[in-house]
Amino acid sequence: VRRQRQMCIRDSLSLALAVLTLGQQSCDNLPDEQFDKYVLMTRNGFIDREIVYNASGKATTEVSVSVSGSSDVAHDVEVEVEVYPDTLDQYNFEKFRTDSASYYDLAEHYTIPNPKLTIRKGEAYGVFDVVFDVKQMDKYKDFVLPLRIKSASDYLVSPKASRVMLMHILLTNFFSGAYGMSAQFDGAYINLNRTLSVIDEQTCFTYIGNIETTDENKADYRLEISVNPTDSLITLNAPGLDLQQEPSDRQNLKNVMVEDETEQRLYLQYSYVDPRDGRRKSFDGYLSQTITDR
Predict the structure, then answer these.
(1) Which terminus of the chain is less hemmed in, N or C, by CB atoms within 10 Å?
(2) What is the pLDDT of residue 255?
(3) Which is it for strands 143-152 and 164-172: parallel, antiparallel or unpaired?
């Protein structure tokens, strides 16, 4: 009985070894790439792209195109890209439906110097440039540039959304971005979120008082904030409104320590006549963001 048991164990081990050897041979005979390779946007879908506003008025950003898969690109691949507005139309409708006031605007005042690029043999990706004329752009619109891969000389163009990039254009300067706002406003304490959007290299706009981005007439309540880069003093402007900025050197941009974090703060003090009820309303407070958020 012991001899039979030993023989069974030996035969089982031999069979297992044979299976492992066959499996290894099968793997060795597989091609390097198991799946189709696709040409796609390296970053695809809806992508926020920060573009620094500079005095020259021109700003260039690179867009990357890749080939999917685990193996190297065996030879040069020629790719052509295009602007494809239909993708933005579809995105707007799917996200906002009938709320057309919230739709993103199709980008303007840009060029693509060469919409054709090459992904070189052995490289992971290729790039092309988009150049924006930031001085000509309407600063009060929310622009998206819909880019799509049009064709490729070899491999397949991705049939999915990965062939598309919806580039959401975010102009930036040295104090733009998302802030928290704390203030005494019209006799009450308010604590709201604010975004400072770029107008030029030293001016941003937001909305005055407690006006929200969802307010129907928000365009009538824009507050322009200019920061002098030399002394950090702030100048305010509110087109179309009776605005009075209180004379105070306390209205400035500066960094302050809050617990263990450094905050960038803009101190504001002003009053304005609200056209909705004819009352003058006062604001005394600040906008703040942690430096690490920038």
Answers:
(1) N
(2) 87
(3) antiparallel
